[in-house]
Design goal:
The complex is a heterodimer of chains A (114) and B (115). Chain A has 114 residues and is mainly β. Chain A contains no helices and 11 strands. Chain A is globular and about 40 Å long. Classes of the chains: A mainly beta (114), B mainly beta (115).
Chain lengths: 114, 115
């Protein structure tokens, strides 16, 4: 099955600076890579996703890059704001069996320092 | 998260009791997933269901856990004879039918505490 590693586990940046979170995956057949943001006491919220036929996708201050050869993908947040503070999870789809489920990284706790 | 409804949001059970968690998917979604999240950990896949069918339960513990998604009504995750280690947040997610089904949307979760 798929294995997803996520780094760092905690990231603290000054407000206005950029934040980068990196993930690697093991299953070369995976073709869908979403990112979720989870605030305390709430469910994960999809913020951006990328499919394997593109290398980069951008949505305002958020961008995701994908390197299929190296099997890694990254989340970039620019001009960070206090409301960006949350736990961020990357995921990759599990192409094995009939799951169509997602395998998640262990999360990155992003702290925006005012 | 809007649209995937989970209840109860918080549930306290004594060891040995049963816990039932309910999930109504977003309108138009026919695929339901259950995930478990332990404190300070990521989300672990448990089961994937479509109406009246369990498609993949490879993440479900072999005993005490079961899930269903009947033709009518919400999906139910049932935990029998709960133990302290079952304390976690249980998230339901749903996705639409068709090729975009990997795009899943989560509910707000049900927090189970076993005392």
């Amino acid at each position: 099955g798929e294995n997803v590693e996520q780094h760092p586990s905690t990231l603290s940046v000054q407000e206005g600076d950029s934040a980068v979170i990196k993930c690697t995956y093991s299953d070369s057949a995976s073709n869908y890579f979403p990112w979720y943001k989870q605030e305390l006491g709430k469910g994960p919220q999809l913020i951006i996703d990328i499919r394997s036929n593109v290398g980069e996708k951008k949505d305002q201050r958020i961008a995701v890059t994908l390197n299929k050869t190296a099997k890694h993908f990254s989340l970039h947040i620019t001009e960070t704001q206090p409301e960006d503070s949350a736990v961020y999870f990357c995921a990759a789809n599990d192409s094995g069996g009939g799951a169509d489920g997602l395998t998640f990284g262990k999360g990155t706790h992003l702290i925006i320092q005012p | 998260n809007a649209g995937v409804m989970q209840n109860p949001r918080h549930l306290v059970r004594r060891r040995g009791q049963e816990a039932r968690l309910r999930c109504s998917p977003m309108k138009g979604h026919s695929h339901v997933y259950w995930y478990r999240q332990l404190p300070e950990e990521g989300l672990k896949f448990m089961v994937y269901l479509q109406k009246e069918n369990i498609i993949d339960e490879s993440g479900m513990p072999k005993e005490r856990f079961s899930a269903e998604f009947p033709k009518e009504g919400p999906s139910i995750l049932r935990i029998q004879q709960v133990v302290r280690g079952d304390s976690a947040a249980y998230f339901c997610a749903s996705s639409p039918p068709g090729t975009a089904r990997n795009t899943i949307y989560f509910g707000e979760g049900s927090w189970l505490t076993v005392v």
